[in-house]
Design a protein that fits this description.
The chain has about 120 residues and is an all-beta fold. It contains no helices and eleven strands. Helix content is about 0%, strand content about 55%.
């Protein structure tokens, strides 16, 4: 059974830091791109940061220079270090695992963790 379990959300003041973690229970997890997405109230889900199976990284424009994503391939974990948080970072953050093969696409999501940044 596939599981993505997030942890580390919470309430923080503007300018503060939080670290989110995601633990993946997926066969051949190293073949997946793993990433963090977020969804603020009334808005669409957007990419925050992702790490590919080859360790390439991709960041959303609004978090570049403030957030750092890292991945432990041996432990199947994904970490998001968030610094200099702003009120507009308030959202539910979701861990995602994504893979495309010749025959199908795989997309798995965690249950989400709330991040609230007070001004």
């Amino acid at each position: 059974q596939v599981q993505l379990v997030e942890s580390g959300g919470g309430l923080v003041e503007s300018g503060g830091s939080l670290t989110l973690s995601c633990e993946a229970s997926i066969m051949m997890a190293s073949l997946y791109t793993m990433g963090w997405y977020r969804q603020a109230a009334g808005q669409q889900r957007e990419l925050v940061a992702a790490v590919t199976s080859l360790a390439g990284t991709n960041y959303g424009d609004s978090v570049k220079g403030r957030f750092t994503v890292s991945r432990d391939y041996a432990k199947n974990t994904l970490t998001l270090q968030m610094n200099n948080l702003k009120p507009e970072d308030t959202a539910v953050y979701y861990c995602n695992a994504h893979r495309v093969t010749d025959v199908r696409q795989y997309d798995y999501w965690g249950q989400g963790t709330q991040v609230t940044v007070s001004s």
